[in-house]
């Protein structure tokens, strides 16, 4: 009997000891915290992604009315403040010539036969106007801004609309009468704020809108234009020797030489690409195809 009582007592002691060990064993708080952090991060990532998608969808819906279609060929007609003018296309000038533009910034008329790169290019300094206008003929939107009036966060907002966006270009335009001016071929909109919703409406309506620019299918990237050191903007008014708005030399082979279908040609020679100097005025560069 004594032996049995001892055995039960021993068992009780062992169980008590085990319970004490279990009770005194620390909880893995580090692991718990790590798991919570991972779950929280995942929730945050998915939440951020969802909010971005939701914002993009909301923006797309808001801009739907400004998307060109067969029944809405020029949505910019509904944008308050847009100025429209008709300009003759495919008129080139030499790199040493200036044009007596009728608007500032101009949004059509004679231009240099080399276009400024407009594949989402943000120029840090003012660029020669005659090069910038050529990009408009190819379907680009040009955001010009007064560097004395647009800085900091406002400038960043404009850059975000341009950087990496094909057929879009941006440059400072010293002396501009408004903080911001948007140009596409034959269209202009001047604004006071980088937060104005009409900026996105203008871009949506007119960038590569085949109904509003003359050279559908033309390229906007330019391997011959010095993006890092472009020809500078000239603030002084053109002199008496400037090319008038009715002047310039008719360019042959307008369109994208890499896309003959855009001009209806099947032979590069038919687009004028075989002899780029054939249609260039005296003194014009002869190493770059006219477009």
Low-confidence stretches: 255-291
Mean pLDDT: 83
Provide the succession of SSEs: HHEEEEHEHEEEHE
For the secondary structure, the number of strands is 9
Distance between the termini: 113 Å
Count of individual helical segments:
5
3D shape: elongated
Broad structural category: alpha/beta
Q: In order across it, which strands form the biggest sheet?
A: 1-8-7-5-6-4
Q: What is this structure, in a nutshell?
A:
This protein is of the alpha/beta class. The chain contains 5 helices and 9 strands.
Overview of this protein structure:
By secondary structure, the protein is an alpha/beta fold. Helices cover 30% and strands 11% of the residues. The protein contains 5 helices and 9 strands; from the N terminus they run ααββββαβαβββαβ. The chain has helices spanning 2-24, 29-63, 129-137, 152-162, 198-206; strands at residues 83-84, 91-93, 111-112, 119-122, 141-145, 168-172, 180-184, 187-191, 249-250. Strands 1-8-7-5-6-4 form a 6-stranded mixed β-sheet. β7 and β8 form a beta hairpin. The longest helix has 35 residues, at 29-63. It is elongated and about 120 Å long. The model is unreliable at 255-291 (pLDDT under 50).
């Amino acid at each position: 009997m004594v032996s049995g009582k001892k055995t039960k007592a021993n068992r009780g002691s062992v169980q008590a000891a085990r319970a004490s060990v279990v009770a005194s064993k620390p909880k893995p708080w580090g692991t718990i915290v790590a798991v919570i952090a991972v779950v929280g991060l995942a929730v945050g990532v998915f939440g951020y992604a969802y909010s971005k998608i939701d914002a993009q969808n909301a923006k797309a819906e808001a801009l739907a009315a400004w998307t060109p279609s067969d029944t809405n060929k020029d949505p910019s007609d509904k944008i308050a403040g847009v100025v429209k003018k008709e300009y003759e296309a495919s008129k080139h000038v030499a790199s040493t010539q200036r044009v007596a533009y009728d608007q500032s910034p101009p949004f059509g008329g004679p231009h240099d036969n080399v276009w400024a790169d407009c594949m989402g290019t943000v120029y840090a300094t003012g660029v020669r106007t005659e090069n910038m206008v050529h990009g408009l003929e190819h379907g680009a939107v040009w955001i010009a801004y007064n560097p004395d009036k647009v800085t900091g966060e406002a400038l960043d907002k404009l850059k975000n609309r341009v950087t990496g966006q094909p057929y879009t270009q941006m440059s400072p335009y010293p002396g501009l009468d408004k903080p911001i001016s948007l140009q596409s071929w034959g269209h202009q909109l001047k604004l006071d704020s980088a937060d104005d919703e009409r900026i996105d409406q203008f871009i949506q309506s007119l960038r590569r809108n085949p109904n509003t620019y003359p050279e559908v299918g033309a390229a906007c990237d330019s391997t011959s234009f010095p993006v890092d050191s472009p020809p500078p903007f000239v603030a002084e008014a053109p002199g008496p020797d400037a090319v008038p708005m009715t002047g310039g030399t008719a360019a042959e082979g307008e369109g994208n030489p890499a896309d003959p279908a855009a001009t209806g040609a099947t032979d590069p020679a038919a687009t004028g690409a075989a002899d780029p100097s054939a249609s260039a005025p005296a003194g014009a560069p002869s190493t770059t195809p006219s477009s």
